Amino acid sequence: MAWTQKQFTLPSQGRGSHLITPEILSHLPELKTYKLGLLHLFLQHTSCALSLNENYDSDVRADMSDALDRIAPEDVKGELYRHSAEGLDDMPAHVKSSLVGASGLWFLEFREGRQSRRVVATMQGEKK
């Protein structure tokens, strides 16, 4: 049984749902050395999320972002949420990340500001 762990940063892409399967694979060339096993991806932030979902139609990503915005709207007047110390888009981002559970791998950015995000990848399995 072998273990590998590494950290990398996803570049800022702005608010929305972004397909990141190719980017994840480029950061983890070690995956090709495993015959079988598990990959655990941990996003070190609470106002964005990772999700497995359909990869066929890009409209699905846009519709998902729109649906989440309707469920947890941004608090433009500062009246919907008590927590607003980090900005009016912060609390809706926390709600959205709680709703999105852990086929392409999507990165869902819920904040307006463009910032990079850190990911910890842990691979466990049997090497080839």
UniProtKB/TrEMBL annotation:
It comes from the Eukaryota. It holds the Pfam family YjbQ. SUPFAM superfamilies: YjbQ-like (SSF111038). InterPro entries: UPF0047_YjbQ-like, YjbQ-like_sf. Belongs to the UPF0047 family. NCBIfam families: TIGR00149_YjbQ (TIGR00149). This is Secondary thiamine-phosphate synthase enzyme.
